[in-house]
Amino acid sequence: MDIVIRQAAPGEYGTLGEITAQAYLHDGLLDFGESDAYLRELRDVAKRAAAAEVLVAAADDRVLGGVTFVPSGGPMADIAAPGEAEIRMLAVAREARGRGVGEALVRSCVDRARTVGGCERLVLSTQRTMRAAHRIYERLGFVRTPERDWNPLPDLDDITLLTYELTLSTTRD
């Protein structure tokens, strides 16, 4: 399967939004199911594309997954500091998992971060249960940064997001 990583086209926003929402729902990453406010954010690819770069992985003209790349701590950034870019909302369709789609998306973000002037690190947040994603990050040279872990919903103690970073100047593919 030849995977192509490219900018999401407006006609693909609905498909990618649903892939992202379903990935989070089926993996048990949303506590409130279909009524979760974050689920609406996951589906709103047009909003993300207006504020960051939304990339899709496609094969045979079919969207298999996507990711949001936030250069230079843009408005979509959760944790990026000056000199950092951020990866957000990585998701792969259930039927495309295990085929290198997630890794191809992350590699594309690493490549993009290297082209951003002044960008020294690529950062991301992830949930504890996203173990397959953790393996991708670690395989690509990301390291855990527990001092940056954070809780997007302070009222709920059990939603601490783990953080990773990749220092770009010392990475090799």
From TrEMBL:
Gene3D superfamilies: 3.40.630.30
EC number, UniProt record: 2.3.-.-
SUPFAM superfamilies according to UniProt: Acyl-CoA N-acyltransferases (Nat)
Classification via InterPro entries: Acyl_CoA_acyltransferase (IPR016181), GNAT_dom (IPR000182), NAT_camello-type (IPR050769)
Superkingdom per UniProt: Bacteria
Keywords linked to the UniProt accession: Acyltransferase, Transferase
Protein name: GNAT family N-acetyltransferase
Species name: Streptomyces viridiviolaceus
Class of the enzyme per the UniProt entry, highest EC level: transferase
Pfam families: Acetyltransf_1
Cell membrane found in the keyword field: no
Gene Ontology molecular-function annotations: acyltransferase activity
Domain annotation N-acetyltransferase: ranges: 3-169
